[in-house]
Amino acid sequence: MTKSIKRSYIREILDATNKETISFAGGLPDENLFPMEKLKNASLKVLDDSSSMQYSKSQGIEDLREKIAKLYTKYFDFPTTKDEILITTGSQQAFDIISKTFLEKEVIVQTPTYIGALSAFKVLDLKVKDFKYIGSLNYQLKKDNGLYVMSDFANPNAKSLEKEERKEIAHILNKKGSFLIEDAAYSLLDFDGKIKKPISAYYQKSFHLGSFSKIVAPGLRVGWIRCDKKFIEKILVSKEALDLHTPTLNQMILNQFLEDNDLFEHLKKIRMDYKEKMEFMASCFKKYIPSFQFEKPNGGMFIYGKFQEDSFLLAKEVLKKNIAFVPAQVFFADSKKSKEARFNFTNSSKKQIEKGIKEISNMIITKNESIWFKMFKERLS
């Protein structure tokens, strides 16, 4: 009997969009900020080397792993060597190979949580339970299960864990012995350029996931896992069963890009642009939908808030008007109904942001007027 598996709601929305759609749905970076000329120059250099078209090591090319390891040591206050880095085909692949290798039955996740992680865990038939308060992990974590956390600008709610919260989680993990999967997709996108020490730095049975998708270009599909060398030897088996290795060409292009350019100069431009767009989107919500409750994030790519209406039904209605956003229902392990929603501010122009939010506002006003008119008619009759 074939198992019924649902596609990602967000991927379905992306498939349903067209050139006319104003999409606040996906976690897409602004393609106008892709360092195209620099990537082109890196590509031309790499293509002079025939090894760029050859098979390469399953763990990833050494020079790229060395550069990522230096990022951890210098910026994350987390001493790391190239032998503790495994290159993955996008950070998404990490969920699969870690879960297959180490998680037997159950994983505990933040609520709400990243839909891509939920999908990966469910496809592998893992039981997914959520937690809201750190203290509850004392009762939920066990030696044979895992914990999935985004500690910086979490997808979807853009929240970050404070230093004491990270230490508290590490303390519980050290008592319980569970595996930690810490997703750092947005850790380098703090608007003020701050980089916090990850939970993984305090706990050995951990996998810290990173990606070039949000900070350079997602089309290259290059991510990584930072973990103890003894764990890399085990997940390599699962990695090799999937794709042997992440494409050599893509790895070499990124390595050359990092060799020739200052990543943090590039990040400065991204952070500045994203902060400006976030502020603009926030001002549009306050102007056109003042009932939408939210807190401005300090980084990342999303504004997360609460409507007075069912966000799932509202999302379906505005999609008919070529406006897309993601209702929070899809970010909960149990798909519970919610009035909350996630908006991406990085992949739209200011003109599109204002137009899209005005359209949602008009939809809400029209819908509410219809409800009141219906109630008025019923009273008269």
What does this structure look like?
This protein is α/β, with parallel strands linked by helices and 381 residues long. It folds into 2 domains: 9-27 and 265-380, Alpha-Beta Complex (Aspartate Aminotransferase, domain 1); 37-261, Type I PLP-dependent aspartate aminotransferase-like (Major domain) (Aspartate Aminotransferase, domain 2, 3-Layer(aba) Sandwich), CATH 3.40.640. Helix content is 43%, strand content 13%. The strands form 3 sheets. The chain has a 7-stranded mixed sheet with strand order 2-8-7-6-5-3-4, sandwiched between helices. The protein has a 4-stranded antiparallel sheet with strand order 9-10-13-12, with helices on one face. Strand 5 (146-149), helix 7 (163-176) and strand 6 (179-183) form a beta-alpha-beta unit. Helix 4 packs across helix 8. The longest helix is centred in the C-terminal third of the chain and has 31 residues, at 350-380. The model has no long low-confidence stretch (mean pLDDT 93).
Briefly characterize the structure.
The protein is of the alpha/beta class. The protein has helices spanning 9-16, 36-46, 62-75, 92-102, 115-123, 137-140, 163-176, 229-243, 248-260, 263-288, 311-319, 350-380, and strands spanning 22-23, 85-88, 106-110, 127-131, 146-149, 179-183, 206-211, 223-226, 293-294, 302-306, 323-324, 326-327, 340-344. The strands form 3 sheets. Strands 2-8-7-6-5-3-4 form a 7-stranded mixed beta sheet, sandwiched between helices. A 4-stranded antiparallel beta sheet has the order 9-10-13-12, with helices on one face. Strands 1-11 form a two-stranded parallel sheet.
